[in-house]
Each structure stands twice: as structure tokens, then as C-alpha cells.
Amino acid sequence: MKHFFLTAILWFGIFTANAQDLKSPDGNFLMHFSLEADGTPVYKLIYKGKDVIKASKLGFTLKNDNKSLLNDFKIEDTKTSSFDENWKPVWGEVSSIRNNYNELAVSLSQKETDRKMIIRFRLFDDGLGFRYEFPQQNNLIYFTIKEERTQFAMAGDHTAYWIPGDYDTQEYNYSTSKLSEIRGLMEKAYTKGNASQTSFSPTGVQTSLMMKSQDGLYINLHEAALINYSCMHLNLDDKNFVFESWLTPDSHGDKGKMQAPCKTPWRTVIVSDDARNILASKLTYNLNEPSKIQETSWIKPTKYVGVWWEMISGKSTWSYTDEFPSVQLGVTDFSKAKPNRKHGATTANVKRYIDFAAKNGFDAVLVEGWNEGWEDWIGHEKDYVFDFVTPYPDFDIKGLNEYAHAKKVKLIMHHETSGAVRNYERHMDAAYKLMKQYGYDAVKSGYVGNILPLGETHYSQWTNNHYQYAIEKAADYQIMVNAHEAVRPTGIARTYPNLIGNEAARGTEYQAFGNDRNNANHVTILPFTRLIGGPMDYTPGIFEMDVTNGSHVNATIANQLALYVTMYSPLQMAADFPENYERFADAFQFIKDVAVDWDDSRYLEAEPGQYITVARKAKGTDNWFLGNVNGETARVSNIDLGFLEKGKKYTAVIYADAKDANYKTNTQAYTIRKVVVTSNSKLSQFSASGGGYAISFYPVADAAKKK
Ligand code: NOJ
Ligand code: CA
């Protein structure tokens, strides 16, 4: 009671002063909210006494409305509260997640217009989330956002790990530079060649944006729960190091169609003085709503192979025939067309992959290029490319599903939309029904090319609503979704755990794209950026780095193994050809063994752009798997195996780079050694340039049983 009065007095004092402080549960963060003299809302964030976000303004400009939502506010009310609960994700890096924060909701009203806006702040032990809410009211009902003007004022010229701002793609290599250097590097960073690209500013970058300050703070800016809103980029004022939100416009140049009551996504600032804590943060998921899917037994972490790398690397084709300059569904008679003999998705080839999957314990086989329409799918802004239900004559959809199911393997459906979003929506029910008919429970979708209707982009509110519609509709059919080229994830998989994967960054496919491949340190940055919002279908596991089309994969075999642990995903592909796995059967053993769902995860070493070392405990077992990926500079990790259960002996199988391995010229030089370890053991392990290592740990008794 005494406490209550004290806080009430404090609140009153602050109320009149137009300012209020909020602390994180552990007291390390302080968020300060205030109104400037002209009624502009401002916040700042301090971590362990250091400025993370200096005084930064909050608000919006509106279309056709001279009175913006930038100033002239007064505080009507403030409410503080605390929250602490543990929740269990359907799949994840850990089996239980703590959601613990202190909240401040500031209710504002604009003096002249009496418009109401609530700014809700949640301060966790790993950072801050805040969003704008517009309650039901008479003076602000339908409105169009011209600009969201949320600022993130950085305290210095930090090092940033960034990709160019773009309304259509995140498929870029990362640049590492000072904030002040972004403008000078933008042209070089903005590599061309993607089927759809729209840049907007010489200092525009995408989120999740990772930064490091000179005094050792790791700062990550992103968003959570991007629903019915446009994707946020950041535009930098590089004289003052102030980022401002830059929303993706719609086809009219507008940035958001709103109807109160409504809210924005959360803007997130994850901070630590230890890079490992950024990787371990669950703040993005915690800011999303709990699962809306009640019965989740059909959602299953999946390890898969596929008829895929052969098309990406130019060995075979998605298309069935080379006979026609173009095709039209319902008009072109494929049954009479001459096959090109390079088609990948043939019944015989798919059977080969099913046999391989069954023999090696994989759950599923992805098959791309199974359906009519691939002959002219790209580059024509063609609306009706695919119907998602008509197989090519050489793909026996019924027989192959029966063949697979008899071997306890599933086929993964593939829906390439070629950006024709309305066409996909028109066919979606029929497409999902066909999947159910044949027993598919997962779909990989794709959005290559400009979005149709023209004028919309991949990350506009309208298109984001489509991705959400596809996820929710798939959930109605109990179908898991892995969307490529869709907007980057923002933790929505907590609410819709059937969203088991996304691409939304450069995946392994770019390693086959000749002179514009992924940098060797790409995989040491992605967990700090793209993975902050959710898992990525990175499609690792390439063993033959010299690709059919002459390209070269920038990695060693040991690095490729480690990705199954460092790039957390409930969906993991073994992307290379069966014959390459057979050539290196001893290394392939790790991919067969590694889990895809976890009880626990420990980040042991991490520095963006340089290295990441993670250990994870496989769900429902005593087995651990460890992965290390390394950037350009060869190094030695010194790690402590204290995560293992005390008093237990484990057989550790260590798959590592040979001394002379490197990602350019000696990619297949690895060693495999077996040692017995305990939680007291220390490990000193070499990683080559662009290399890494992977370890499986089995309790000694189980390891004996396995043999
Ligand atoms: C791009 C995707 O990222 C890739 O995985 C897929 O094979 C092609 N589109 C074709 O759909
Ligand atoms: Ca892609």
C-alpha cells in the first residue's frame, strides 16, 4: 500500500513535468519519455549508464491533412505495469521462453484536434519495444500515413552491418562500415541483377540492422509483429547519426492506410555489451501475440532434400520443354510438347530423391518445376503464369506421393507465384486442396519478379497483407509455409507457428550466381540481422563447391555442416546432390544426425562478421550439437564444454577444417576425430578462412548403442 502511494506521488510529479522514466526488470536499461515544450513526444534509451538512443522524436505526418501527428500533444494519462511469464514455443531454440518486461503506456491527445494516440513502451532486460496505438475516436478514424517519423538517434558513428534499403528485395551481401561511410559505399553495395529491386535513398538501409559502438555496445534495430502495415526501413541523417523510419509506399506513394482502432508494429532496439546476448534475445517473439493455432501437432520441424540445387546450379531445368517461345496455361498442350530432357522434376528423378531421403532419414523431398508454366515464368510481368494444380506430363503427382508415403517421406509442395499475387490468391484454395488430396503438409512459396498488380512492391502494406493471408489460409488447411522473397520475418511465427521458414535474405542460391556470390562471412552476420525476426531457409549443406555452371561456393565442407546449428531453423535442407553426399559419406553423417528442434541453446562465442559458435541440446534427448562458422580470418576457438550435463561422459565427433583448408582453393579438406569429453573439458579448435567446425555429442552409453 505504502508502495502504491509512493508511486502515485511520483507519477503525479512526473505528470506535471510532462516526463516519465521506465526501467527494465534488471535495472540495466532506463527509458525516458517526455514531451517537448511544443508537445512533441520524445524518448531516449540508456543502457548501463551509456546512451543507446539519444533524444529521438516520435510521430507521423498524414496525407491530405495539414495538422500532422508530430506535436501539440498533451499527456492525458500514463499507466505502468509489469509482466512476467514463461511460454512454450511450438518449435524453437529453447523449450521455454521468458517474457518479462516493464511497460509504460502514454496516452496523448492533440490539443487543437483532440486526436488520441497511445505510445506503448515495453522495456525488457535485452532491450526496448514500442508502438503507436490509435484508439476508437471521433476525430481520427480513417487516415493515410504520409510518413512515420520515428527517430533512432545513435550516440556515435557506429560500425554497421547493413544492406541497402530496397522496397523489393533483401538479397544483398552485407557491407560493414561506419555510419558515416554508408553514403560513399551505397552504389557498390547496391548490386544489380535481382529480378525486382527498388532503392529509395543513398543512406537508406534495411532492418534488422546490426551495429556496434566504439565503446563495445551491440545495438540491433528492427520491428516486431508487422501486420497490416508497411515494412519499415531506416533512413540515416549521416551528419548527426539519426535514423528515421522510412516506410514502404503503396502504388500511390502512400505509406499506410489506417482505420482506428489500430496499431503499428513494434519498433525494437535490442542492446547488450556482449554480442552473444543479441543472438539469444527473444524480444522479437515476446512482442508478438501467442499462438492463434490451438492444435499444433501437425506442425513439425523438418529436414529435407530436394530437386532444387540442380536447377539453381544449371544442371537441369524447371521447365519441361524448349519448344515454345512462350506458353499459356489451358492453351499450350504440354502432352504433345517435346520434352527438353533436362527437366528436373521427372517421376524417375524424384523417386531417386525419395529413395535417398528414406535411406538417410530425411523427412521430406522438395520438388520444384513440377507444374506447368515455367517456360516463360520470369521477366514478363505476366499475371497468369501458374495455376498451382497442373503437373507436367512427366510428373506423376499421385504415384509419387504414394511412393513417398510408403517410405515414410513427404513431398514438399512448391508454389512459385512469379510475383503475381492476385493470381496466387485466385488459385489458393484449389492449390491447398490439391495438397491435402495428395498428402502434402508443407509449401515453399516464392515471389520472384515485380509484384502484380504493378506499382505494389514486395514490402508494401498491400503485399504484406497477402503474405499474412497466405499464412492464415494455409493454417486453415493445416499446411506449413516457407515463403521466399516475402517480407522479412518479424516474429509472427509465434502467433502463426505454421510459418516455419522464410528466405528474405541472400540464401545459398547466390553461391551459384557466378560473380555476385555470398561473402565468406555472410553466415556470421545473418544470425545478427535476418534471423532476429525468425528462421531462414538458408539451404545449406553444399559439399561440392565447384558448381556445374562454373560458380564457386565460398565455404568449406566443415563450415557447411556447422550451419545446421548456427543458422537456427525448424526447416533445414541438405541442398547438395545425393551423389556428393555419397562421396563424402563420413561428413554427411553429421547432417543425418543433427536435430532440427531444440530444448536449449548456448551461444558460446560471437562477433558479427567474424565468428559464431553455438551449442544446442536436441529436443527430448541428452544429445548436443555444436557449430562454429568463421569469417575471412582463420582462428582458434577456445571453448568450455560446461553446458554438458555434469558427471556424464559424452562421445564427441568433431568435424573440422584441416589445417590447410580454406573457402577458396581447398574446400573439401576436413578431419573427423572422436574423443570422450565431460562438462569439465575444454576444447581448442581451429577454423579455416571461411570455414568452421561441427560437433555431435552423445552420452557414452547411447553412443555405444548407436553402433
Ligand atoms: C527463388 C527461390 O529463392 C529459389 O529457392 C527458387 O528455387 C526459385 N526462386 C524458383 O522458384
Ligand atoms: Ca530468392
Automatic annotation (TrEMBL):
Domain Glycosyl-hydrolase 97 catalytic: 308-505
Binding site residues for Ca(2+): 171, 485, 503, 509
Entry keyword set: Calcium, Hydrolase, Metal-binding, Signal
GO molecular function: carbohydrate binding; hydrolase activity; metal ion binding
Domain Glycosyl-hydrolase 97 N-terminal: 22-290
InterPro entries documented for this protein: Aldolase_TIM, GH, GH-type_carb-bd, GH97_C, GH97_catalytic, GH97_N, Glycosyl_hydrolase_97
PANTHER family, A to Z: GLUCAN 1,4-ALPHA-GLUCOSIDASE SUSB, GLUCAN 1,4-ALPHA-GLUCOSIDASE SUSB-RELATED
Protein name (Swiss-Prot/TrEMBL): Candidate alpha-glucosidase Glycoside hydrolase family 97
